[in-house]
Design goal:
The protein has 13 helices and 6 strands. By secondary structure, the protein is an alpha+beta fold. The protein has a 4-stranded antiparallel beta sheet with strand order 3-2-5-4. It has a two-stranded parallel ribbon with strand order 1-6. The two termini are about 40 Å apart.
Length: about 300
Amino acid sequence: MIRACVHFFLIGAVALAAQRGYEAWELRERPVELTVKVPAGADDAEVAQLTREAILLSEARRAGWAQTDPVIFERLVANMRFVAPEEARRDAVDLYDEAVKLGMLDSDVVVRKRLLERATQVLGSVPDAQRPTDAQMQAYLDAHAKDFELPARVRFGQVFLSADQRSGSLDRDAEAMAAQLAKTDPAPAAAFRLGDPLLSRRPIALRTTRELDDTYGPGFGDQVAAAPVGRWVGPLRSTFGMHFVKVLEQIRARPPRLEEVRDQVRAEMVREVSRRLANERFEALRRHYELRVVRTGARAER
C-alpha cells in the first residue's frame, strides 16, 4: 500500500510542477558551474544546441523531475526488469532505486529526452495573463488575413475514363465522349454511368484544389478550378485516367471571420508568445551559469 502511494505521489508531483511552471526555476542563490561536453569537431550551432540541452537538463534535475516523473519511473523499472528478469517480481520502487544506483538516470536516452521535453514545455509555457483576448486575435487576423484565408472550393460532377481499363483506346474514347457530352448535355447525377466506375459516383462535394490534388494527383485541382460553371469540359488528366467535369458551384477564396478561425488564430498567437518567452527565459537562465565547454573525441549520444 505504501509503495502504491509513493507511485501516485510521483504523478501528483508532476502535476504540481506543471502548475508552478517556469517560476519554480527562478529562485537561485548563486551561479551554477556547468561543464558542457561537445564533440571535437562540433560547429558553433551544435555547441549552442548542446549547451542549451545541458542547461535544460540541469534545471530539470534541479527541479527534481528525475525523481518524480512517472514516465521516468516506469522506464527505469522496465529497464531493470529487462536486464534482470529474475528480479521482475520485485517491488517497482525497489527496482527504481536499484536503477538509480546503477546510474540509469544519467545514462538512459529516454530519460534524457523526457527531461528535455518537460523542460522545453516549461520554458515555453504561456501564463493565462499572456493569452490573447478576442480584440487581440481580431487585430492579429486583420494583420495576417492572407495566412488564414479560406481557400476557393468547387463542386462538380464527372465522367471518368480509366487509363487501366482503356489502355489501348483511351484517347479515341475520350474524343467520342467529348462529342456525346456536347450533344446531350446529361445531368451530372446520371452522366457518371457513361464512364468507368470511380470511388464516388455522386457529384463531388465542395473541395479545395489541394484536396482534389490529394485525391486525383498533382495539377488536377487547378484544372477543375479553371473550368466554367454549368458546362461539360474535358478531358482533364489525372493519375487515374481522363475526366470530363461539369462544375456546379464555385466559391471564391475569401478572408475569414474571426469566429471561423478563432482556434487557429489563438494557436498561432500562443505559439509566437511561447517562442518569445522560451528565448527570453533561456537567456535569463544562461546568465545564472558559469559554463565550461570541453571538446571530446566522440559525439555525444542524443
